[in-house]
Amino acid sequence: MTGGGPPAFPWQGPVNVTVSWAGLNLGAELGVSIGIFKPMSLGRLMALGAFAAVAMSATAAGLPKRILLVPIDDRPATTQFAQMIADMAGVQVDLPPDNILGKFLQPGWPESIMQWMDATGVKQYDAVVLSTDMVAYGGLIASRTDRSSYNLAMKRLQHLERIRKTAPNTKFYAFSAIMRL
After folding, report:
1. At what angle do helices 150-165 and 110-120 cross, to 10 degrees?
2. Those residues with Cβ within 8 angstroms of residue 17's Cβ, 6 or more apart along the chain or in another chain
3. Which helix (H) or strand (E) holds 113?
4. How many angstroms separate the CA atoms of 178 and 181, rounded?
5. How far apart are alpha carbons 98 and 75 in whole angstroms?
6. What is the Cβ-side half-sphere exposure of residue 108, based on CA atoms within 13 angstroms?
7. What integer pLDDT is reported at residue 46 of this predicted model?
8. CB 32 within 8 A of CB 52
9. What is the pLDDT of residues 1-59, one digit of tens each?
């Protein structure tokens, strides 16, 4: 490495992403191409790929195309990018209101997000994609602090379980970030 800069990542610059789901090569079929203009963590890239698979599976299966997304935080990489990818597949993505997702170091409000999900009615969606870090703790940064007790996090996840039972035909996809050491 010269110049003392950061190491080069193999995914700098435009990247063609091919998504396979249930044996279907959806990326090639739909011509998905995502331009990444600065280094992106492998975890974020994998999360976007997972979301793309969910979004494009609705198109491939010919199902109504509506997804409820509870992101890990309010960053554009977890909200706007997901909506842009879904838009490429003709999928509508609904997010909780910005004011309950938190902002930067301010955690989101899991109880408000659950109330919003209850009021919105998850039955009307083909899929729900959600961050368990947001649901249990209030987001990625909040999941790394000790603000929420184990019992409180479990209570929030049990509320999510009750919401899940109200929509047995809606597919739920949950994800969580594993902390680096």
Report:
1. 10
2. 27, 32, 33, 34, 48, 49, 52
3. helix 110-120
4. 9
5. 11
6. 32
7. 56
8. yes
9. 444 544 443 434 444 444 433 433 333 333 333 333 445 555 555 566 666 666 555 55
